[in-house]
């Protein structure tokens, strides 16, 4: 039995498959979280993308750039041992561990969205490549300092968690900007 084409909700989010195999389910939930994040950052100008809530310095623009980096870091650099490319390769991460977060204030909103969309597209292509070369059990090419190598399965679940956590932050920030609410 094949899964019907994904249903798309009013916010452009694809419903994860209810009876898919493991890979389709993981990828479906990750794409749902990605689409939720796209919804929370859509249509905002620079002031909106630089808004904060309470005492936090976290911004939606910073989140766009951070998640662009996370997509690239996990799927290109870590999973397949490929260069991250620019703007990441020229950053002095030792001097500024949060460069991705605060440098976003200097970027144009369309540039931040484009960077994130490009990172997601590349991550999807790299995921497909890794699935074809070992499936969900394929170990990352780069090992942690203790020698362990997480599998593609672990990386996908981690990315779902990363988006879910930041989507909660995005909910609060977006609501404070224009009252936009929703899961």
From TrEMBL:
Superkingdom in the source lineage: Bacteria
Any single Pfam family the record assigns to this protein: MST
Record-linked InterPro entries: DinB/YfiT-like, MST-like
SUPFAM superfamilies according to UniProt: DinB/YfiT-like putative metalloenzymes
Name assigned to this protein: DinB family protein
Lineage: Bacteria, Bacillati, Actinomycetota, Actinomycetes, Glycomycetales
